[in-house]
Amino acid sequence: MISKDYRTSNLFLRNEFETDGVWGFPIIKKQELDLSSVELIACSDTSKNDTSNLKKGVHFFVDDFRFESIYNHPERSLEKYGRYRFLLTPDNSLYSEMNAWRQIESVGHSRWVGAYWQSKGLTVIPTVSWAQPSSYRFCFSAIEKGSIVAVGMIGCKREKIAFLKGYDTMIEIIEPSAVICFGSPFPEMKGKIISVDYFSSRKVARNGR
Question: How would residue 44 be classed by pLDDT, with cut points 50, 70 and 90?
Answer without folding.
Answer: very high
